[in-house]
Amino acid sequence: ASQLPAIPASAQAEVDRNLALLQKQIDEANKRLVDTVGQGGPNFVQNAILGPLEGKRTAAIDRIAISIGRTAEKPQGLNSLAACTLEK
């Protein structure tokens, strides 16, 4: 959220919904990481959790940018925020 430009009032509700969705996606991925410890091969986490999470985050970030762009300049470069890494 701190990397977003000023959000027009007309877009605020949709932006807030998608920001909440981004947090929910992270929470679900974190739970899945805990629930699947030791499963799969060396690429399991990337292929089964982080890769799909990036796709979901990209879609939510796109919706945020589109929503802002309806009444203000559409923000550019937000998709760079979609990738996730595993913290230890």
Compute the number of structural domains: 1
Largest sheet: none
Helix content: 55-70%
Tell me the overall shape.
elongated
Task: Please state the CA-atom Rg, rounded to the nearest Å.
Answer: 15 Å
- Please, how many helices? 2
Roughly what is the average pLDDT, rounded to an integer?
Answer: 94
Task: Summarize the helices and strands and which ones pair or pack.
Layout: H1 9-35, H2 44-69
Q: Which labels suit this protein?
A:
88 residues; mainly alpha; 60% helix
Gist?
The protein contains two helices and no strands. The protein has 88 residues and is mainly α.
Q: How would you portray this structure in words?
A:
The protein has 88 residues and is mostly helical. The chain has one domain. 60% of the residues lie in helices and 0% in strands. It has 2 helices and no strands. α1 runs antiparallel to α2. It is elongated. It starts with 8 loop residues before the first helix and ends in a 19-residue tail after the last helix.
